[in-house]
Specification:
Length: 194
């Protein structure tokens, strides 16, 4: 039986609040990962990325440096990308959206071969919302379409209920779903107490 390398999970925390509900739910899910699974947790608000500028028709994108380079290297390091975000106005938080915007630059940076180097990575989403699962549908579809654009497998979507700090810890259905989330079948949405 061939040995497989341990999986490497990159958790991209999109909240502007540390230890927010989406992060608490993601940490609960990550606690269930096998012990040899490598994990890296990045709080996206810590990375001072300038607003994304679309220059694809003007000039090549420069080689990333500084915070952008750190995020790029972490993205390429991972076998599994987990976008962890609260629902803000029916979509991603600002830091999470800005991170995804930079994929556009990385796809067009000469010599980076971003699309080829992303091949085989699995994308996941962990979301906290105080609304209904239907209200979070645009966020889920945004992430699924982003993964599909690069032909990346979609691992799953975990939704928990929470508005005030710590609320998600009372969503027993979401916590239960989190316990098997990273072992879930692809394309299977898991939602908490709705």
């Amino acid at each position: 039986m061939p040995l497989t390398a341990p999986r490497r999970f990159l958790f991209l925390l999109g909240s502007t609040r540390r230890a927010g509900n989406s992060e608490l739910l993601a940490r609960h899910a990550a606690w269930q990962l096998p012990p040899d699974t490598e994990q890296q947790w990045l709080f996206l608000a810590d990375f001072d990325l300038p607003p994304f500028v679309d220059r694809r028709h003007d000039a090549p994108y420069p080689t990333p440096t500084g915070p952008e380079q750190i995020l790029l290297e972490a993205t390429l390091w991972a076998t599994d990308l987990v976008l962890v975000t609260p629902l803000y106005w029916y979509t991603l938080s600002g830091p999470a959206k800005r991170y995804l915007d930079y994929w556009s630059a990385w796809l067009r940076t000469p010599g980076l071969e971003f699309r080829a180097r992303m091949r085989g990575k699995t994308c996941w989403a962990v979301v906290a919302s105080s609304g209904s699962a239907e209200e979070a549908r645009p966020l889920r579809e945004t992430l699924q379409l982003s993964a599909a654009y690069l032909h990346l497998p979609w691992g799953g979507y975990l939704l928990g209920n929470g508005s005030r700090p710590g609320d998600v810890l009372r969503d027993t259905a979401a916590l239960r779903a989190a316990e098997s989330f990273f072992a879930a079948e692809a394309h299977r949405p898991l939602t908490g107490g709705r």
